[in-house]
Design brief:
seven-stranded mixed sheet; six-stranded mixed sheet; Aldehyde Dehydrogenase, Chain A, domain 1; 25 strands; Aldehyde Dehydrogenase, Chain A, domain 2; 38% helix; alpha/beta
Length: 493
């Protein structure tokens, strides 16, 4: 069995308590690797190493932007070189189809390259200020925050890690990184790449283990200057409470229950295909999933008929064989989704397709679900209100544009949303009214390194990716220079 360790202060080490956990292949239930589990003492050691790296040795922090950018490019090249291996690790460890994992790797490569280039662009600004205290020159600079703790989810193990690591390292921070316990292998391989590329000692640290222990310690630790988290709203709220003890900077990308609004004048086949991308990509284990389809009443029957036909045709199987849909991440998560399905049936929704575990052939030992469509749903149903995080979509109807907007916004979340229509004016009117941070017109789920990602309301705080993603990991310092030093004459005596 493969055994993997923590990476702290430039060395691979076992956890101080000697505990381990296992990584399980969700397509067959087999153990892939044994992983060292960090205790609180290990987390504190990692934080101390990052603090020392940032405030004392300062090798990464003080490296000029050209050299730092060159290092990020070197990391990107290595990710590309080991791309097939990384994709297979995510497919085996998390359950996503191999081609989707390969896309994640490609995005990770370009994310590092994007931030390598971005740190060479101008930033800050100069300001024309008043002369009440004499003639002054006022300007700002962007500085790294310091020690950044980063906690990532299991649904995009490598890519979500890179979304945080690339901009934070580009800014010159030192990092303590904690991936989701259920999927760690590609993240471990990434830190092996960091070591191979020669990242300075203590600048990148990897701790693994239960979120309730490690996450709480990172959030409350006074030597952590910033904490970022991607995951459930409930855990995000807990991190906010812990971080409040020393008012550290936070970034939260949380849950969603996103609307996908389909008007009657939309291209039917295109809307169905994109709706499938919105909910069945990554087995529906996506925070931005278009899990609430709102379709105009006049095309409801035609739309649902075609959606069900296409959903029933989806291939399911071993992720390494590259089917349309792979396995759910774990048995416990599969059972959680199945419980939501039973809840939907009990509350009166019409099960149009799916709704059961998939056990054909070699899938019998794995955690597979059929793509599931619930029709005739109402806004008070649990499956309409709560994030399911699986291949389960609800269908509701509307008659008017206003009704569609009201239904779209009838959620405490505000991560994503989409509008499908052939009317450009309507598309812009509706998308403007949807209270969400990431929106699409006549498509669903594309994401770009250049554009900010994040939500409104209970879907989080802050933005990842783009220029905003770099600025999240920076502090803005104002500098004011007196151009005529000497006595001001403010006091008469």
């Amino acid at each position: 069995m493969i055994k993997k360790k923590l990476f702290i202060d430039g060395a691979w080490v076992d956890g101080c308590e000697g505990k381990t956990f296992t990584s399980v292949n969700p397509s067959n239930g087999e153990v892939i690797a044994e992983i060292a589990e960090a205790g609180i003492a290990d987390v504190r050691t990692a934080v101390a190493a990052a603090k020392r790296s940032f405030y004392e040795t300062r090798e990464w922090r003080d490296m000029d932007s050209q050299a730092r950018g060159d290092m990020l490019l070197k990391i990107a090249d290595k990710i590309e070189e080991y791309g097939d291996e990384l994709a297979r690790l995510d497919a085996a460890d998390m359950g996503k189809p191999l081609r989707e994992a390969a896309c994640d790797v490609d995005d990770a490569v370009h994310c590092f390259r994007y931030y390598a280039s971005l740190i060479k662009t101008p930033h800050g600004g100069c300001y024309d200020v008043n002369t009440g205290f004499g003639e002054m020159h006022s300007y700002t600079v962007h500085e790294p925050v310091g020690v950044c703790a980063e906690i990532t989810p299991w649904n995009y193990p490598l890519l979500m890690g890179v979304w945080k690591l690339a901009p934070s390292l580009a800014a010159g921070n030192s990092v303590v990184f904690k991936p989701a316990t259920v999927c760690v292998l590609s993240c471990i391989r990434l830190f092996e790449i960091f070591e191979e590329c020669g990242m300075p000692k203590g600048s990148v640290n990897l701790v693994m283990g239960p979120g309730g222990v490690i996450g709480d310690e990172l959030a409350a630790n006074p030597d952590v200057d910033m904490i970022t988290f991607t995951g459930s709203t409930e855990v995000g709220q807990s991190i906010m409470r812990q971080a409040a003890t020393n008012v550290k900077k936070i970034g939260l990308e949380l849950g969603g229950k996103s609307p996908n609004v389909i008007f009657a004048d939309a291209d039917l086949e295109g809307a169905v295909e994109w709706a499938m991308v919105g909910i069945f990509l990554n087995q529906g284990e996506i925070c931005s999933a278009g899990s609430r389809i709102l379709v105009e009443e006049s095309i409801h029957d035609a739309f649902v008929k075609r959606l069900v036909e296409r959903a029933n045709a989806i291939t399911i199987g071993n992720p390494l064989d590259d089917p349309d849909m792979g396995a759910m991440v774990s048995e416990s998560h599969m059972n959680k989704v199945l419980a939501y399905i039973e809840k939907g049936k009990a509350e009166g929704a019409t099960l149009a397709c799916g709704g059961e575990r998939y056990t054909e052939g070699e899938c019998a030992k794995g955690y597979f679900l059929r793509p599931t469509v619930f029709d005739n749903c109402t806004s008070d149903m649990t499956i309409v209100k709560e994030e399911i995080f699986g291949p389960v979509v609800t269908v509701q109807t509307f008659k008017t544009e206003k009704e569609a907007i009201d239904m779209a916004n009838d959620t405490p979340y505000g991560l994503a949303g989409a509008v499908f229509t052939g009317d450009g004016s309507r598309a812009l009117r509706v998308i403007k009214e949807i209270r969400a941070g990431i929106t699409w017109i006549n498509c669903y789920n594309p994401a770009f390194n250049e554009a900010p990602w994040g939500g409104y309301k209970m879907s989080g705080i802050g933005r990842e990716l783009g220029v905003h993603g770099l600025e999240e990991y920076q502090e803005i310092k104002q500098i004011n220079i007196n151009l005529h030093p000497g006595v001001l004459g403010w006091y008469e005596h």
